[in-house]
Amino acid sequence: MDLELMLKVYPFFLEAAGVTILLSVLTAILGLITGTLGAAARLSRFAWLRFLGAAYVSVFRGTPALIQLFILYFGGPQIGIQLDAFAAGVIGLGINAGAYMTETIRGAIIAIDKGQREAARTLGLSSWQATYKVILPQAARLMVRPLGVNLNMLIKATALVAAISVIELTYTAQRYIGSTYKPFEMFLLAGILYMIIIYVTGRGVAWLDRKVQIT
Amino acid sequence: MGLDFSVIPKYMDIILLGVGWTVGITVAAALLSFIGGIIFAVIALYAPWLIRQPFRLIEWVFMGTPLLLQLFLIYFGLVQIGIDLPAFVAGIIGLGLHFAVYNSELIQTAILAVDKGQMEAARTLGLSRGQALVKVVIPQAVRAVIPPISNNMIALLKDSALVSVIGVSELTLSAQRAIGKTYRPFEFYILAAAFYYVINLCMEWVQRKIERRISISR
User: Fold this and answer.
1) ipTM, two decimals
2) Which site among B57, B58, B65 would you substitute to test the A interface, given the most A Cβ atoms closer than 10 Å to its Cβ?
3) The domain at A3-212 falls in which architecture?
4) CB contact under 8 A, B179 and A163
5) B1 secondary structure, DSSP code
């Protein structure tokens, strides 16, 4: 193992890890927004909205995220959407993650007992109030752990933007593998950083999960 | 530049060949991940401590890093140690190992969920521990684990797109080839997405059939 080389290049990997973290955070925020909208659509009382939500989930979970990124980044200009690689990465991955989060959020909401809504309505709350004051606060507790799984997948999925040349952790590893012919060393550097990011995120999610549980 | 889908038929044969490769790679990697998953699970549960540890490390690394990075390691790493495999073999190994680790988690849970009495009964009937495991416990565990594993296999189909990055001419790379000649990325990536979606729907259909069969025979 070439330690000297690893010491020489690790600052570039640290910098790239910063990009990966930024990508993950922005993607997670966008994913939560589209996921919430998707869940709202799937639970809507309007049939066409339910259909739209179901189609979103089915199509975006049914095709590779890599192809979705390529359609947005390379195909976008043909239909008037011109994005730089980083923006395309965040938007593409965010909408993809949103499809998975739609199902997580919807699952948590429908897991709340029907009686809760009925009781809230009986007490005089409007349908809107019942959703926001009674159902969602309870559903939010159930969501934390499965959303944590979504987040874990999402962090690993950010590696895909290497294929559209965003200089993040996997792209950096790939570039240095090409120039140094030391695949193992470069994998080790990038892999350790990924595992740190994922470990810390996992602990954060576990902490939040404990925090929101009622004992 | 607007859209023009009329260029597609001319390159349909390249795309269809890509579909064939995608299906082939998915099936081969799925088999590898299934067998590998059983082996990893048995090692994790029954092997002596010293053998268990390196496998735990592998499991940990494979679950904590992106598949794309693992593919680079396997493809270029094998070349570095003098094993020059064709890209598609490296791709199958990479995909297969990655999903073997995820399958192993499911199979471990399923093995532990098989009633202890099964093992005891098999031992009482004179089977050795290994025989009891292979002939009695694992077949039952595998049955219970088929529905969640088939979810993994659908994920594997979609992740097979990643092997295009190491130069395997499957569906994604075939689309890229056609794009290289026509400069029509939107049309061909949409076409590729449509093919993935159709394969995906077929797999979901098979999954439902299998699930129904298992639930009836129980």
Assistant:
1) 0.89
2) B65
3) Orthogonal Bundle (1.10)
4) no
5) -
